[in-house]
Specification:
It is a single chain. Helix content is 27%, strand content 30%. The protein is of the alpha+beta class and 70 residues long. Strands 1-2-3 form a 3-stranded mixed β-sheet, with helices on one face. A hairpin with a 2-residue loop joins strand 1 and strand 2. The model has no long low-confidence stretch (mean pLDDT 80).
C-alpha cells in the first residue's frame, strides 16, 4: 500500500457533499482502480469521480481504455 499512498500525494482531491473528485496521474491502470476502491471504502463517500489519467509508457497503450474513440 505504500506505493498507493505515495501516488495519492500527487492527486488533487475535492469533496462536495460526499462526492469525491480525484485528478492526477498514475503509472498503471491497476493503481487507478486501487485508489478509487480505497476512496469508495471511506465513510461518507457517496460517489467517486475518477479523473485519474494513466501515464502511457508508449503510444500503443493509448486508446485501450476506449475513452478516446473517434
Amino acid at each position: 500500500d505504500k506505493k498507493l499512498y505515495d501516488a495519492i500525494d500527487d492527486f488533487d482531491v475535492e469533496v462536495n457533499n460526499g462526492v469525491v473528485t480525484i485528478e492526477g496521474e498514475v503509472e498503471a491502470q491497476g493503481l487507478k482502480s486501487q485508489v478509487e476502491s480505497k476512496i469508495r471504502s471511506l465513510p461518507g463517500v457517496k460517489q467517486v469521480i475518477n479523473n485519474i489519467e494513466v501515464e502511457a509508457e508508449d503510444d500503443s497503450q493509448q486508446g485501450q481504455q476506449g475513452q478516446h474513440m473517434h
